[in-house]
Amino acid sequence: MPHRYKQSPSVAFPFTKLRLFAALREKLREGYGFSDLRADLLAGAVVAMVAIPLGMALAIASGVPPQHGLYTVIIGGAVVALLGGSRFQVSGPTAAFVVILAPIAHNFGLGGLLVAGLMAGIILIVMGLARMGKLIQFIPYPVTTGFTAGIAVVIATLQLKDFLGIQIPEMPERFLEKVIALFQEKNTASLTEFLIGFSTLSFLVIWPKFNKKIPAPLVALTVVSAVTASLKSFFPDLEIATIGNRFSYELGGVIGHGIPPAPPHLNFPWNFASSGDKPFQLTLATIESLIPPAFAIAMLGAIESLLSAVVADGMAQTKHDPDTELVALGVGNILCPFFGGIAATGAIARTATNIRFGAKSPFAAIFHAVIAFLVVLLLASIVSYLPMAALAALLMLVAYNMSEMKHFFHILRVASKSDVIVLLICFSLTVVFDMVIGVTAGVILAALLFMKRMSTVTSAQVIANGTHPHLKETLPKEIMLYEIAGPLFFGAAEHAAEAISVITDNVRAVIFWMDGVPVMDVTGLVAFESAIYKLTRSHRQVFLVGVKKQPHDLLVKNESLTGNPNVRFCKTLDEAVISAKEVIATPTHQTSHPGSKASPHA
Fold first, then answer.
1. Can you give the residue ranges of every domain in the chain?
2. What are the Cα distances from residue 586, in Å, to 468, 511, 601?
3. Phi and psi dihedrals of 459, rounded to 5?
4. Domain spanning 459-590 has what CATH number?
5. CA dist 199 to 60, 165, 194, 562, Å?
6. pLDDT in the model for residue 52
7. CA end-to-end distance (rounded Å), the chain
8. CA distance linking residue 439 with residue 430, whole number of Å
9. pLDDT per residue over 227-266, tens digit each?
10. Where are the alpha helices (DSSP H) in 130-260?
11. Quick check: pTM over 0.85?
12. 231 within 8 A of 196, measured Cβ to Cβ
C-alpha cells in the first residue's frame, strides 16, 4: 500500500541540509598531518597574541571588565571555529560591537549585556536555519561603508579619555554629550598618559615596516608595559592607569587586581554582575527592551562574520558555507554568556593574520582560544601591568583601519549623488545616534533609491511605423505593436502602462510583445489589467505574445483576462499578427465583446 502522506523533497525543512563542522570535516577529508598541526599551532599562537590585548581592550570599551573579552576569545573562538563553515575564520569580540554593547552595559549592566548576546545568538541560529546567509550580500556597499566609518569615529573618540588621561567621573551615553564632556574636562589631561599612548601608537604603526613576522601589538604592549612597571618602581608616586589599578575582582573571598587567574565559570547570564552594577532583573519588560539591541547585535555579527569569511576565501582560495557559519556563530553567542563572554563575531584582521601566518584548518582558531585560556590561568598577574593608554592606542589604530577612509572618500568622489547621500546619512546617524538607526535609515533609503532606478530599467514603447526585427512585413495602421522590456513590478508598472495613451481611434488590435518581461508582481498585474480593460472596453482585440512562465501563471489566474474573448495569448509574434489581421478584416459589429466566455491560448 503506498504511503499516502509521503513528503516531497521540495517541501522538506531547509535545515535538513545544514552541515555543522563543515569546514573541519572538509579539511580532515583532504588529510591532516603533523606539518598541518605545526602550522596551525604557530598561526594560533600569533593570532592569540593579537586577540588577547584586543579582547581586553574591547571589553573595557564596551563598559565591562577586561576578562569578559578574554572569555569571549576562549569560548566564542573555539566553538565557532569547531562548528563553522569557514576554514580560517577567527571569531571573538570586535570593535564594531562597541557602539552597540556600551549603551546596553550602561543601561542594564553586565547581566543585561550577556542576556542580549544570548538573544542575538538565538536570532543568528534562526537566520542560519532559514538559509539567510546569502541575503547579507544585498546590503548596499554605501550602507556598510557608512556605518563602519561611523563606528570607527565613535570608537576613536571614546579612546581619547584614556589616551589623554582625561578624568571624567561618568561618561554620558550620547556621542555629542561625550564630546562635550571630553572638551569640558580637557584640563585634567595627563602628559604621562599621553606619552604612553603616543609611544604605543607610534610603535604599532612603525613596527610592521621592519618586521611582519612578529605581531606589532605583542611587541608594543610588552615594551610599554615593561617601561610602565619600571617607572612605577622608580617613581612610586607616579600615577599611571593600568588594568591592575583600574579593575578588581573577588576570587575565593580574596580581592585581587587586574583579571582573575581562573578559568571562566559557568553561570546563568543574568546572574553575572560587575562591581557597581545594579542587580539585573530578568523580566518580560527587560527582555522586550533588549530585543532591538539583540537584533542589532545579530545583524552586525552576521554582516561582519560573513564579510570576514568572504575576505578569507579571497586570500586562501577557499569557499565557506554561509548558513553553517551563521548557525555556528549563533551557538557561540549562546554559549559565551553562560561563561561571562560578550558578543562574538568573525574578526577580519585576526582572520587575515591567521591566514598570513600559515593556518591550515579550523584547529588554528581553536589553538588561539586554548592559548588565551592558558594566558588567563598562568599570566594574569603580568597582564595587569598593561597601561590603559596603551590599550586605547591599540583601539585607535583598530578604529582607523576599520574606517577604510580611502574607500569612504573614493565613494564620495566617484559615486552617484544618491549613493553619496546614503553613505553620508548612514555615517552621520551612526555617529550622532547609534548604528541601529544609521543602518535602518541607510537600508530603507537605499531600497527606495533602488526601486526608483529599477522603475527606469523597465521600458515600454509603441513600435513606430509597424516595423520590428521579428516582423516579416510592416503592420497595417489598424494594428499596433507595443513592446515591454523589463520586470513589471510596483516600481515600474505605471511607467510601462503610460505609453498606451498614444493609441489612436483607428487601432483595432494591440499586440503586447512581452518576451522581455521576466517577472511580474501583483501591482504590475493590476496596472496591466487596467490597461487591457481600457483597450477591450472600446472593442479592441489584445494579443499577449511571448509571455514567460511566471507572468503567464499570474495572468491566467485572473478571471477578468481569461474570461475575456478580446484577450488572447500567442506563442509567437507571427501567430499574433495573423490573428490580428483576421480581426481587422472582420466588420466591427462582428467582433466579440467583453463578457462572453473564452479560454486563453498559451
1. 33-448, 459-590
2. 25, 17, 20
3. -115, 150
4. 3.30.750.24
5. 21, 14, 8, 79
6. 93
7. 38
8. 7
9. 988 888 888 888 888 898 888 888 777 888 889 999 999 9
10. 141-164, 175-184, 191-210, 216-234, 243-246
11. no
12. no
